[in-house]
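Can't paste images in this forum, so I'm doing it all in text. The chain is below; anyone willing to post the predicted structure tokens underneath?
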Amino acid sequence: MAHISSKNNRFFEIFAVTHVRMLVSLIVSAVTFIVLRWSFIYMRDSEASKFLIGIVALIVGVGGVWVLYAATDNLAGILPICFRDTLRPFVFVGPAIVILLFYIVFPAIRTIFLSFMNRTSTEFVGLRNYASVFTDPEMLVILRDTLLWVLVVPFSAVALGLIIAVMADRLKPATEKIVKSLIFLPMAISFFGASVIWRFVYFYQPAGYEQIGLLNAIITFFGGEPLA
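Text version of the structure:
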């Protein structure tokens, strides 16, 4: 940890005066946080291509978290050793916690607050929205299905995983390696990533438009009609 901290503080070491280093660290942290917020708004509201949005998320997300860590670690490095060793573990998790609080916890709290407002969020209506939800037959079906999904799917996945693990451990060594390889092979890519890939494989454009889906691109290349 100390080795990583010393490398991250090289940028700030050019500022010899302690209070100057502290000021620079605070400014860098504030600017980085503003850039992270701007990138979040850009990714949410921008009509740019998904590829460009992904590049922004990768560069600003990874780079921004590292800069936040470097700045906060520099602040901890200015303190006396007794405080430095106590605060440094929190420095490692601090930027991530701040980002989670600002982009996940705060929006969740704000969403709960807005649930007590009208559809334009201009008037407080109390529990009227909840009364409407819990008296609507269609919403009750949706809530029931969601509750079943939240309770049944995790329990079933864990139980099935434990059963498969116990059964695989009882196999012969040669067979065990093959079976475990087949089990873990689908985990090489996330389900979300796989769904995005297959979406572009089967993507459909109406006749007359360029087919960007792999399957329909191949079919139309050979003169066939795209599959809807």
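The two ends are 55 Å apart (CA to CA). The chain has nine helices and no strands.
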